[in-house]
Design goal:
Length: about 350
């Protein structure tokens, strides 16, 4: 190795150890291994250790005597240990606002990936890190109040099931452009149920293009209750309803079986088109199922929704629509929905 190289190798350390046992001085050893004399002195300090040897007297008896020597193995071990502390310092430094912000958002059921995008987009903190770095910081224990258990989704076991003919107009007859998610105004509808033994539920509407979520709390899952909620929605948007709700895709639950009531406008005529998925095919309502997972972060399965207030429902809806989504470069569903409304008003 040429003089001036950065690190001494284990082979060179062996050469230093052998040179010392042969009585070579530091300068000779430095020339032999191709390093400076200063480097050799630093290396000797690194590998310094206490060894013991036998000392015989004139009668053939011996005692042990300690002396200072150089060990190539000890020097190598210290070198490897010191190398583990090398590398760039933590990017977060002393940005405690960043720490507090990330902990608050994770505990608010926002994923680290979404938090990274939110910080980049809104410049919420001085420190900006990548998704990989964010997860590394969490695994390192940089955050005192959160860990990976707050960030990893629960594993679910998918079971294959048979399919039967759906009620009403089948999803097979739904226009192909709806599946492409290129046009606005096509929704999916589903119920998020309360704990077993209660009748309350959330009726949720998810717009396929913008992922906008509309949530109603309903006392039961009767067909008349579902139709009543759609009527409320039509009154809310008035004449724009037909432009905003061009179609609604539902599953084959009994609560959605009154497709005539769902399609018929309170002002007369047809207000929307309702399409039914194949039974046991939740993947055909992927937007619904994905956003339902966000709702379950706030209200896990087994939660009694009976006593949830209207203001809490609105807060849940606002939280879902203000969630930064990677698919929109961490813009929110509410922002995307507002952009689409401006185009049709």
């Amino acid at each position: 190795m040429k003089k001036g190289s950065k690190y001494i190798t284990l082979t060179q350390r062996r050469q230093i150890e052998a040179g010392l046992s042969m009585g070579m001085n530091k300068k000779e050893i430095a020339e032999h291994i191709g390093m400076s004399v200063r480097t050799v002195y630093r290396e000797l300090k690194r590998g310094q250790c206490t060894q013991r040897k036998k000392v015989y007297d004139v009668y053939g008896d011996y005692t042990y005597k300690d002396y200072t020597a150089y060990s190539a193995d000890i020097a190598e071990d210290k070198f490897r240990l010191n190398m583990t502390s090398k590398g760039a310092p933590l990017k977060v430094g002393n940005d405690y606002d960043f720490i507090r912000y990330v902990e608050k958002r994770v505990l608010d059921n926002v994923t680290p990936c979404a938090i990274v995008g939110e910080i980049k987009r809104n410049r919420s903190c001085k420190t900006v890190v990548s998704k990989t770095t964010m997860y590394r910081y969490i695994r390192m224990g940089l955050f005192m109040n959160i860990s990976m258990r707050h960030c990893e989704p629960k594993k679910r076991n998918e079971k294959a099931t048979i399919k039967r003919a759906p009620r009403g107009t089948s999803i097979e007859k739904r226009p192909a452009e709806i599946a492409m998610r290129n046009t606005f105004g096509h929704w999916e509808m589903d119920c998020v149920c309360s704990k077993q033994g209660t009748t309350s539920a959330y009726l949720v509407f998810s717009e396929r293009l913008t992922r906008k979520e509309i949530i109603y709390k309903i006392p039961n899952k009767q067909t008349s209750t579902i139709v009543h909620c759609v009527n409320r929605l039509e009154r809310r948007y008035g004449k724009l309803f037909r432009k905003i709700f061009k179609s609604i895709t539902v599953d084959n639950g009994v609560e959605f079986s009154d497709f005539e009531g769902l399609e018929k406008s309170i002002y007369g005529g047809k207000r929307t088109s309702v399409y039914y998925c194949h039974p046991y095919s939740s993947c055909e309502r992927g937007t619904n199922e994905r956003i339902n997972r966000d709702i379950r972060k706030k209200y896990p399965k087994g939660t009694d929704l009976t006593n949830v207030t209207e203001s809490e429902v609105r807060a849940l809806e606002d939280w879902v629509n203000a969630y930064p989504r990677e698919i929109f470069d961490f813009a929110t569903s509410g922002e995307k929905f507002a952009e689409q409304l401006q185009q049709i008003v």
